[in-house]
Amino acid sequence: MKAFVLEKYGSPLRQTEMPVPSPAPHEVLVRMVASGINHADERLRVGEFKALFPVSFPKVMGGEFAGVVVKVGAAVTDFTIGETVYGYVGLSAAGTLSEFVPVDARAVARAPESLSLVEVAGLPVAALTAWQALVDMGHTAEGHTVLVHGGTGGVGSVAIQLAKHLGATVATTVSTKNIDAARELGADIVIDYTRDDLVQRLDSTPVDLVLDTQGGTTLLTSLEVLRSGGTVIGVTGPPEPMFARRIGVNPVVRLAIRAMSARVRRRARALGVTYRFLLIAPDGAAMQKVAELVDDRILRPIIDRARAFDETHEALDDVLAGGTRGKIVVTTDPKSVTARG
Questions:
Q1: Element containing residue 185 per DSSP (H, E)
Q2: CATH 3.90.180.10 fits 2-122+301-336, yes or no
Q3: 301-325 residue pLDDT tens
Q4: What predicted TM-score, i.e. pTM, was given to this entire model?
Q5: Do 2-122+301-336 and 125-277 agree at the fold level?
Q6: In the chain, what are the domain boundaries?
Q7: How large is the greatest C-alpha to C-alpha distance in the chain, in angstroms?
Q8: Mind listing the pLDDT tens digit for each residue in 127-143?
Q9: In degrees to the nearest 10, what's the CA dihedral of 36, 40, 41, 43?
């Protein structure tokens, strides 16, 4: 089978031939039809996560997939051969940028029936990020106000829809060209980050929860728009001590993480708010709930374009260049390759 592998931190991905794996007793083997490309792929490639999630080389890259079950492990009872499935495998597991992917059955869900598998492949990372931030960590409910940065990106577009479904008033930041698209997704307050002052625009609308996809100065500014007791959940860092405890890193790494996030946490304390870091974990049960919301027409992924599997390098370049509207995916199905959406 063809696969894109990382041979050492910092090296470019290399396309290679590998044996088709056999699933372990708790795994299913999936024929990959499409796989989403994410900023996390680049962060893993350059070694940003190596203290938290060391990997063995060569490492098959990729984190999310949609495809068809072709084999099931001896202990798997929830899935059968021929079912269409999707999910997220995490950073350390066998990656999804390969023609066949062995996946822990607990990370797998049946694919929504109302979408093509190329569309489905744009969901796992975006939907899990939105779900784990807004539901699991943020406990978003009716009457809350949520700010989503990058509202027309892969994560932001799903987060807006989910927050609206949960009953929240939703504010978002986008570029000028994406204002109408953000409104179509359901955003109540659309802020043009190229022209508007975020704090001024939200001065009369204190925010309960911010989903920050940008980091840096955007993260620090986001602390300013929260009501007392509110929370910023960041997905680009820096990690913080609660996250370090949750994943069980060693004391040296815990100290480093504490130092990395000290400035942000200090500012948050001074404002009476909280900063949390999110690195999503595989969760097939949540993915199944997302699939139901998709088939109920409550959530829909936004796909910028689907490239051929052989164009994985170019797809990663697309993501890193920014400015996309929704997700970039690669597909092993030549008929599903699209022009930019």
A1: helix 179-185
A2: yes
A3: 999 999 999 999 999 999 999 878 8
A4: 0.94
A5: no
A6: 2-122+301-336, 125-277
A7: 59
A8: 999 999 999 999 999 99
A9: 170
